Amino acid sequence: MTEHAFAHTGKEKRRSPLPQVNPVYFVLAALIVAIIFQNPAFIEPSGYMNFLKRAAPLAILAAGQLYVIVSGGFDLSAGSVITLVVVGSSMLLNNDPNATWWVIGVMFGIGAVVGITNGLIVCYLKVPSLIATLGMMITLNGVAFMWSGGSPRGYLADSFRFFGRYNFTGLPFIKILPVAIIVLVVLGLLLYWLMHRTNLGRMIHAIGDNPRAAQLAGVPINRVRIIAFVVSSLSAVAAGIMLGGFAGVSTDVGNGYELQAITAAVLGGAQLLGGRGSVAATIAGALTLNAMFTLLNFLGLPQPVRQVVQGLILIAAVAVAMYRRKHTGR
């Protein structure tokens, strides 16, 4: 499969002589300025570093979710994977710090199985991804509930919570550096490279843009879609480990994260009907969503307002996607 072949899987785009900047970066900058006006302490290292630390799990989750969205699907099971990781890890650790690494390995194994199962159901049973992953979400929540007996038991050892909780201190200039930010940078670069610098990323875009043309061009559609679901689930495992690090054990820790991840991808310019999306912009979308929530908290607005804002963003995104598809054929 050559890059030349991929060039014919969609319509030609006119190239602008000037580089186009994704609007999400301007929105993020405006929100940061508004937060600073509300809370000047935000410009201190402890302020913006803690902000990035809180946003890191969502940013990683959204970047993984983007793979499924660009391929033309959805993964609603991501939040339940997070819950299962946190609850399952607390049960398997059994208060033993020495078990941390093999437990983390088991969690990534479970994530891979969930992703493969989602992909197989969508590709071979022809179940829409929305329904398939909704069923997986309900199933995994049930498994987490049964595994924990309805209430979390045990605790997450400090060695496990290291990735979401620990901060390197005494550093020049920035003073502190949370491990969560290092994890975000490493995984973000990896996901960016896979999506935008490899054949896999080109095939994912081709499938989402025009599945029939991609198939005629020789793209192994089912295999690529399964890989996209696996990437999403593994990203959810990483996010779950980080959330368990600074949020502790809870049976509803992952509730709503799947929709937040989709919203972040939408804010970053991803097209919900597939074919377009950027990992960097999606991470910026996650930071934007987190900044939006932070600003709402500073303004003293209640929690339901967050849900209203998030819902309006999703509705607007679907409307824009349908308009584009109707008027441009993409």
In CATH, the topology is named ABC transporter involved in vitamin B12 uptake, BtuC
Beta-strand share of residues: under 5%
Largest sheet: 2 strands, antiparallel
Write down the secondary-structure element order.
Answer: HHHHHHHEEHHHHHHH
| Shape summary | globular
Structural class: mainly alpha
Uncertain regions: pLDDT < 50 for 5+ in a row? Answer: 1-14
In total, the number of strands is: 2
Count of runs of 4 or more consecutive helical residues: 14
- Give the N-terminus to C-terminus distance in angstroms: 23 Å
The CATH architecture can be given as: Orthogonal Bundle
The CATH class designation is: Mainly Alpha
Number of domains: 1
Mean pLDDT: 88
Helix content: over 70%
Our Rg estimate from Cα atoms comes to: 20 Å
User: Strand order across the biggest sheet?
Assistant: 1-2
